[in-house]
Amino acid sequence: MLGLFAASLGFAQKQSSSDVPTYKNPNQPVEQRIQDLLGRMTLQEKVAMLGGADWMQTVPNQRLGIPSIKMADGPLGIRSWAGPSRKTGGMSAKMQVMTTAFPAGVAMAATWDTELVQAEGKAIGEEVKALGRDMILGPTVNINRTPLWGRNFEGYGEDPYLTSRLAVAYINGVQGEGVIATVKHFAANNQEFERHRVNVKVNERALNEIYFPAFKAAVEEAGVWSVMSAYNKLNGVYCAEDTYLLKDMLRQHWNFKGFVVSDWGSTYSSAATVNAGMDLEMPGGTPMEEWLKESDTIAAGNGGGWLAPEKVLPEVKSGKISTATIDDNVGHILRVIFVSGQFDKPHTATGEIDTAEQRALARKASDESIVLLKNNGDILPLDPSKIHSLVVIGPNAAIARTGGGGSSLVVPKYSVSPLKGIQDRAGERVKVSYVLGVSMEGEDPDKDTAEARTQLIEQAARAAATADAAVIVVGRSAKLESEDFDIKSLDL
Length: 492
What we know:
Layout: H1 2-19, H2 30-40, H3 43-48, E1 71-73, H4 85-88, H5 105-109, H6 114-130, E2 135-137, H7 160-175, E3 180-186, E4 199-200, H8 204-211, H9 213-220, E5 226-229, E6 233-234, E7 237-238, H10 243-253, E8 259-261, H11 271-276, H12 285-292, H13 295-300, H14 309-317, H15 323-339, H16 356-369, E9 389-393, H17 418-426, E10 431-435, H18 450-466, E11 469-472
Parallel strand pairs: 1-2, 2-3, 3-5, 4-6, 5-8, 9-10, 9-11
Antiparallel strand pairs: 6-7
């Protein structure tokens, strides 16, 4: 009887195991799981996955247990931004957090240290998981082609090889934590002015030698799970609907296996965009609909809303989009959900952010990124035994700037301005004073007159003349060095 019972139990267990759908079995090959799941989905369910649920989250499928992908802005840490309720409503939890702020990408590039950048990516991945999110919108690998670009600070500079090495390191760090990295913005996105309308003309050689290498390395070497398309047109075609970019280069030449996500509000068609290989349009839902009605959005030329079910389904029924194409695009998203582990072990907001270890890493990165261009007469380091008075000059001296503005803005729990740092280090040994020097460009145009600037500069010159040493902190406002804006001149 005991043997019969044991045999019956084994049969029951075997029967139970065989009843588990293939897509729910982590021991099955990923491709089989994808095909099994696609076969269980309705056309409406598939099309729903092509667009976001709201501002920072994809559409989940409760019936089949497909989780939503919850995103976090980056890439210099997790963006400390909640935004108005229209942008964070629906299923997205508000993100108004203080996280670890890492140096700007161009500063990280100055370290030439791939291990340090990979450690940065790992720390960012840890914080993404700690917030219960799944995907970081970074790294930015657009090559700096003009010093006027408002987002020059965000990427890794003007060298394609260095950018490639650091991109691979960053992605390996992030994805080693099971978090989706998103290399952006593909391709030739190098200005903010009219970025929704500009047509960037670049020949094949320049694309392959300058603009593509970092994306290619991200795909072929790091196995990046997501690529974000750019706002601009490339040689007359919007990047979000460019078959040459999204299929020929990414899929055929580089064998990309992840999914393509649009930059926010960068789609302008349904059939052309889906057929070109755009897998996921962001944002979506009510937040996107309300955003598209705003005057600033209209004036900027934003697109969006073209991959919503009510627009895609008619194109499928008319034959302009095939069901096979829908399966391909949705399959790319499902593959990443499976290979990243998010289907089997979703991130559940466990862990800590801005830990002592993460802050120490950010400090180390900041130290390593400093570049000494000149030190005539060995003036540095300043000797406090020989200096009794020190004047600090410049509007940025009194501000703790951790980076530029826009989608990469990170607000840390703790930051120190150059002035405060100098005062703390000097203590009572050195008398430290501060003068503005010049007003911050663009902060108050009515008061920022030529006469006012002359007076401020003269005041700074007098202060410097009476001090044993002067430290001048130069730079621009975060309002000028930011997404959405280009710098109008090289003047400081």
